[in-house]
Amino acid sequence: MLKRISSQNLRVGMFVVEYGDGSFDCPRVRLDRQLESLADVEAVRRESKEAMVDMALSRISPEPAPPESEGLSSIPPFLPSGTLGPEPMISLAEELRVARAVYNKSLDFMSRFLRDVKLGRATSVGEAEQVAGEIGASAARNHKAASSLSITRSHGYVTNHSVNVAFLAAALGVRLSLPESHLHTLTLAALLHDVGKALLPDAVLHKPGKLTAEEYALVKRHPQDGHDLLAAQHLFSRDVLDAVRDHHESRDGTGYPGGKAGEEINPFAHYLSILDVYDALISYRTYRRALTPFQALKFLYANRETRFSSPHLLAFIRFIGIYPVGSFVRLADGCYGLVTDFHEDKPDAPRVKVVFDKRLRPMRPVTVDTAQGNGGARVVELGLNPKDYHLNTELFFP
């Protein structure tokens, strides 16, 4: 039975035949597939106000998707305080020059590492340790430079994703004042967390549509396969190996490969699971557009205490901010800019470098502090996707 409904009433599991009202601005788009996640629901909502659903083919999840109107209230504006590391030692602009070079070096290493795994050749374990150390050192100098790269370089491939998660892990570890040995463990595990995917057939790894049950079973093996591959080297610590194996486990026991719950999960893996999903959501896929950082945070927060450990998630949100450094936003006056900093006690009032006018034409950059009392314009968009506007914001950042 076909039924046209408001996109606000879409649920995970619904089979969407098409969406759009047929107008020039919102043409009808044929989808003919099931919404498998909150990210899928959000993607259709962004495109159209209504959708045609086949109720007979729908398999509705018992957990409703969070409404679009939740806004900032869906994430607590003031998170529990904790011991935070020191402020950056050098400026964002200065460290970004170094961080980008480290990022490119890390990409080159991971590309070679994954290729060697796929071909069954010996891997450069020592180089993995070195790369993780350089990522950690960059984050220690300015953690905001490290974390911003995951936004400005979110491409979605396994290689980029692995490097993005490693930079996020290092930045988070620095901000949480983790001991140096723990920081290195978290960063190294993040860099290698998806190594098991190199053993997947390319047809499965890069499939644009829905996976079959058999294909999904193969994908669910990658954490254990990665653990076993690295364990055979006899050079990685147990925490690194366990974090790689456990990064898809869920707090409520519904994850894989072992169905572990709560304290059974490796402590580093609690953070890895959050970072892994966050970067995946803000990256483009062949089957969906990227979510904005804020939309990704809403998804994570909606799954606290089920999929994710709440204390670890709140620590991450406090670290990354409601408007993460590097994100693209629009101000109340209609101009566009990039977040260069934010106040931890005022997470909804970032410092923005305005670089485009109301018509998205480049303008002379102006830095605006959006906190009340500082004379700045209020941010009215909870982040935008620059690729939707065909913009390379890295050219204007910081």
Strand-helix topology:
Elements: E1 2-6, E2 15-19, E3 29-34, H1 38-47, E4 50-54, H2 92-119, H3 125-141, H4 143-152, H5 158-175, H6 180-192, H7 202-205, H8 213-219, H9 222-231, H10 238-246, H11 267-281, H12 293-302, H13 310-320, E5 328-330, E6 336-343, E7 346-356, E8 362-369
Antiparallel strand pairs: 1-4, 2-3, 2-4, 5-6, 6-7, 7-8
Helix pairs in contact: 2-3, 2-4, 2-5, 3-4, 3-5, 3-6, 4-5, 5-6, 5-11, 6-10, 6-11, 9-10, 10-11, 11-12
Overall SS class: alpha+beta
What is the N-to-C order of secondary-structure elements (H for helix, E for strand)?
Answer: EEEHEHHHHHHHHHHHHEEEE
Measured as a percent range, the helix fraction is 40-55%
Give the integer mean of the pLDDT values.
Answer: 85
Rg to the nearest angstrom? 21 Å
Number of strands: 8
Uncertain parts:
61-81
Strand adjacency order, main sheet: 1-4-2-3
- Mind summarizing the main beta sheet? 4 strands, antiparallel
In DSSP terms (H or I, runs of 4 or more residues), the helix count works out at 13
Q: Report the end-to-end length measured between terminal Cα atoms.
A: 52 Å
User: In percent terms, what proportion of residues is strand?
Assistant: 5-15%
Shape: globular
